[in-house]
Amino acid sequence: MTTWTVATALLSHWRRRPLQFGALLSGLALATALWSGVQAINAEARASYTRAAVVLDQNGLANLVSSNGSSVPQSAFVRLRRAGWNVSPVVEGDYRFGTTRLRVIGIEPLTMPAEAQTIDLGNAGDLLSFISPPGTLVVSAGTAEKIRGQTDLALRVSDRMLDGAAFVDIGLAQRLLRRDGELSRIVVAENQRSGLEPLEKLVPTLSVREPNAETDVEHLTESFHLNLTAFGLLAFAVGLFIVYSTIGLAFEQRRPTFRTLRCLGVSLRVLAVLLLAELVLFALAAGAVGVAIGYLVASLLLPGVAATLEGLYGASVPGTLSLRPEWWVSGFAIAVAGTLVSSAQSLLRLTRVPLLAAAQPQTWGRSWQAGRRFQVLAAAALLALSGALLLWAEGLEAGFGVLGCLLLGASLLLPTVLSGFLTVMQRTSSRALVTWFWADARQQLPGLSLALMALLLALAANVGVGTMVSSFRLTFVGWLDQRLAAELYVAARNEGEADRLRTWLATKVESVLPISSVDAEIRGQPMQIFGVVDDPTYRKHWPLIVGLPDVWDRVASGQGVLVNEQFWRRDRLRIGDQLDLASDWKSTVVGVYSDYGNPKGQVIAGINALTSRYPQVSRLRYGLRIQPDQVADLRSRLSDEFGLPPDNVVDQAALKEQSRRIFDRTFLVTGALNIFTLGVAALAMFSSLLTLSEMRLPQLAPVWAMGITRRDLALLELLRTLVLWLVTFIAALPLGLALAWVLLAVVNVEAFGWRLPMHIFPYEWVRLGLVVLAAAVVSVFIPLRRLAGLAPSDLLKVFANER
Amino acid sequence: MERYICAIVLILAAMVIALRNLSKSYETAEGRLEVLRGIDLDLGAGDSVALTGESGSGKSTLLHLVAGLDRPDSGEIVIGGRDISKLDDRGRAGYRRTEVGLVFQQFNLVPSLDVAANIAFHAKLAGRHDPAWENELVERLGIGTLLTRYPEQLSSGQQQRVAIGRTLAARPGLVLADEPTGNLDEANGDAVLELMLSLSKGTGSTLLMATHSRRLADWLDRQVHLRSGKIT
Amino acid sequence: MSVRSIAFALAVMTMASLSGSQAASEGFAGLGSAAEGFSVPQPGLLFRFPADHGPHPDFRIEWWYLTANLEAPDGTRYGAQWTLFRSALAPREASGWSSPQLWMGHAAVTTSGDHFVAERISRGGVGQAGVVAEPFSAWIDDWQMKGLAAPGSDQLADLNVTAAAKDFGYELRLSATGPLVPHGDNGYSVKSAKGQASYYYSQPFYAVTGSLALPTGNVAVTGKAWLDREWSSQPLAEDQTGWDWFSLHLDTGEKLMGFRLRDAGEGFTSATWITAEGRPEPLPAGALQIVPVRTAKVAGRRIPVAWNVRIPSRGFDVTTTPLNDQAWMSTSTPYWEGPISFGGNVGGRGYLEMTGY
């Protein structure tokens, strides 16, 4: 007998069971899809961070920046060059082309170190036109599309460029940004000749910012990607449940075939190798489908992810996906690895079980029940570990560790809890059919428990993440109301206009709140210092978390500053701590305010304290307090009197609306992944039920023979499935809430630096419950129809034939 | 579930069975297979009749038709005065629940219920749950030590004893048995059969038993021999 | 690699005057022929110093080109080069980054076994590179040629010249022992039969002391140096492919500047005989004859490194020998530039530059 014949015999199993085959492939494909989809998104985002870091920030090179947050004089660059230092100037800032705001990065291509030259500025002719008037904007294709027609400057598209940013010659940048003779920073090449005068002697007012191994954006978005990865892994695990149960059954059902083949002289080794080959083949096929679906999923989600990253962290990620080997290879790898892991037990049994042992598909999974005590122990250990991590460990990874242990522990506990529940129900019922109903449900538990565990995970994740997002939203909206207290926000275009604006406004509004800020580096972190006037608006509305009773007096008098929550938590500041705000400016922390959506630290000082240290601080933006009914009037007068463009006058409502929109977009992806995961769990349930329905006949036939109609049996089956789903759903609620609490109180604090109050949203549970109900009905539909359509002769065979 | 349990039949009467010109065929891969061809058979109340014949002679099919598990192509099955072949699915289920006790060669028991629950199961469905009677049956069948076990934990002989207990606990007017000892060795089979016969006599049930064994058939009041779907 | 390409662009524009390379004739704005708003050298102009030591932004290209033949106390011979090129994208000057003036520096030290090269490129307008006529200073980054003469006196008479790179550097002190020398017709130097020309003067009379910083250590040196000043806007004819240029210090105290611009035919030669007192005697086109006597494989190409140089009308006939065959300037636009010695009916030292090979 040739190997091929043996293989044909083995494969014929799947031809006779197309549904089982479908469940196996689709489970594996879906699991791979979500995993590789998430990986694709992560890979794309990471690539763009690296690109951003390398392209925009000359990451990997040290930079000279001003020690006090002001700009760097161009003369410092010339002084360094003439002292022999290999340095290059950069000036950057935001500039609006029509309605499109771009990050304009002015570089000097002749001195830019080769290692930082990542954008190809083209041939010599292009280069000369880059540095010659009128100048060239080097932008991404997407950006070029947006600003075409909005500028007279030549556009040059580079595929290495990031959306929303433009490289221009430094001279053009200084002109656009009105920063003649000023630089943002000076890039220091790695390659320097020896014997140079030290930097601190040449340019004492500048300090060296060492290159970061990890970019700021990468650090900030780490939690977001960890989150996505966790979701991907969860979905994959859920998918593996399907694969595990399907493969287990298929092996058991093919035991007679194995036996026959072995009797015909096929060695165990050949059999095992063939089965292994079969599995790897399936894994690769399903992996290919999975990667394809993953690509689709990722392309659908990526615009949302890009928006999220932009909104939350200001990180620019393109909305289109490229086929990077790091994720599609990992997709195939995890499909194969997952298949092998879930079939390891079956393969092992194949080699261990004696040649002539009888097939026992009906008791398949029973041995699993014997291991339940071990499961309970493992669950207890995991839950204890989760608690221990919560109490004593720190960091984002620990936060996710708490989550992981909690979820895994709880799901391991689920079969025992369900079994206990069913036993109690069985004991308390006296009617024969009711008792049987519960007893039978309990008997099915081993076969369903994996799927139910998957379901529990998916539901708990849904409840938990849903609660987190909704709590966040509620808090965020309330916080916006406090934070955006001014009715109208206006931005002057230059200092002269700002002066006229202040004078003009003095008689027309209740108060004018200047919004002035400088970029500074405090405790080694880049952050902003805002200056505020002493105004009742702040005293009444500003969202303080803690503060001294006379906090605003102290801020106004310059004795103290406020810090935002993330800075407070990250640096474990306490009220009364001293802060070095600049080389000659120390102040005391007198209060802490919540500042959602801002990844960085922030400090608020009295406006006088700020302007005395930074006389050059820009005074262009103001918040205006007026009666709400006068907003529209003032708006139009501002535009008439000063000719301010609409973008420079924004009312509170529009700002809030915009903030909310960003927020909602931010969590769109999370929602989508949630639904996908739930879908996979439903599929797991479906495939388990399908699997079980093949073993149900001997269990149902006696009951039918004793006078219960097939229709009633089917109804009871439906009811049984629904009960299991319902109980799992109910079990998922407290677990989901625990999950939400960990997310809000642990993970968020580590990831973003803010802690949020938890709110409960029972209405969302009802909605989820309905979705679950629908999924349950769908999952049981095919197995049920099969049952209801059985001919009496099929049932009768149970009693007569040797099976 | 209410409707099963509330259908209480208070008066037990042994069943009179009359089969008239009963025919049944199945579609198989090789074409139409005529299993029963015009069976006429009468059983008096309390009769015990052995149905003998070769494998494939139609014994099981006849038994299934009488049990209301399947419907004949033509003919009448008059039991206790009504033709059950005219009943719909629900009617036949009710008939099986309340009037028939079945013992098959295997898979008689509900696997998710323990022995005690299995014995009470049919009686409860039939609305004739009688703990005293069930205890007596358990004692006479010698399965008192097995009550908390599950079917898969029993030997074949033990399973068949429980199945007989389960059947008789419901005090059916008609007991139908299809090779009830076919999976047992001779000694064990004889003991089980003996118990079944004496217990069903005690309840006054009519008994129809299919067996291929002449020896066992001799234990019953009467024998009917089937060959190729016809009584000979 | 934008640095490379801008350097290339710059180099092409500048070196076009030296080499007439392929890129130039293909058209860096048709550099070879049209002047596009740039000023064009005219005969009859008299140099005005010190102003003409400074840049002429309305001309397309310009250079301050120093070569030095040096010797250590032990007799070891060295060559040193310091060059600042100016190249204009437009005929004007502006302050800040909008200046259209680009600057490129080349520095080299040649020993018998090594040739060290470095290049610097800079924008004008911000102070990173430039030239001031008085007090004279020419610089790019930390490389500098600084006048030490008092205001009012010859600004090029005393110079301090420095350059430093990763693997070499030097500091040279230059003192002129003779006057400035105009070439051609009072500084109007014709470059082709079609009339392409430049303004060109030299200071060939420097006595040098200084030190070289080499990987093997510092070396005190003395010797002679030659500074060329030249500017133009359309220096090459279309068919000219490169040039061979000699600056020779004769043991008699006389000097000779001579070049041949190569084309499809005989080429165009021009030379200036400079007496020991510094009086220029421009020789007519064709008076100078040069013939290669030995070639060497340099940077993957065959280059004539030894020459027979003759001026029959003066009975001048010498053969030059390079200090180092491999004096290859591996800059954006590469060329050969190195110290030579010569013998024949008169001996001496000098520099040879060859482009377009």
TrEMBL record, chain A:
Keywords from the UniProt entry: Cell membrane, Membrane, Transmembrane, Transmembrane helix
Listed Pfam families: FtsX, MacB_PCD
Keyword Membrane: yes
Domain ABC3 transporter permease C-terminal, chain residue ranges per copy: 230-353, 674-790
UniProt-listed InterPro entries: ABC3_permease_C, MacB_PCD, Membrane_comp_ABC_pdt
Keyword Lyase found: no
GO CC terms in record: plasma membrane
Main localization of the protein described in the UniProt heading: membrane
Annotated MacB-like periplasmic core domain residues: 450-605
Compartments where found: Cell membrane
Topology versus the membrane: Multi-pass membrane protein
Parts of the chain that traverse the membrane: 228-251, 263-286, 292-315, 327-348, 374-393, 400-425, 445-465, 666-690, 722-744, 765-784
PANTHER family in UniProt: BLL1001 PROTEIN, MEMBRANE COMPONENT OF PREDICTED ABC SUPERFAMILY METABOLITE UPTAKE TRANSPORTER
Protein name per the record: ABC transporter permease
Species, as recorded: Ensifer adhaerens
TrEMBL record, chain C:
Sequence ranges assigned to domain AttH in this UniProt record: 61-233
Key word Signal present: yes
A Pfam family that the UniProt record links to this protein: Lipocalin_9
Signal peptide: 1-23
Stretches that traverse the bilayer: none
Keyword Signal: yes
Keyword set, alphabetical order: Signal
InterPro entries: AttH-like_dom_sf, AttH_dom
UniProt protein name: Iron ABC transporter permease
Organism listed in the record: Ensifer adhaerens
